Amino acid sequence: MTAWAEDQGIEDSIVTFVGDPAGEFTKACGMSMTHPGPPSVGIIGRSKRWAMHVVNNIVQHVAISEGPDDPAGDDNPESTLCPALLKAIAAGGNDEL
Which of 11, 19, 25, 70 could link 75 by a cystine bridge, Cβ 3.0 to 4.6 Å? Predict the structure, then answer.
């Protein structure tokens, strides 16, 4: 995570990268990918593509990109990308990041 954070230049920003190597947070949030496709090719314990906006430990918005034939959300990740999250934050009336 440190190398990725350095590559993305997030030092001294509001962004925090947090790892979940054992998948405990992913499981607690109900975001484990349960579709049979990834395990059939050796990908075990993958997380869904998702994003969460949290303010003061209160979840404000959760977005998940997945579809019946696209469990990883690779074909249509837009709902979990920054523009969609910023729009959801503004629509929710809580512009606090």
Answer: 70
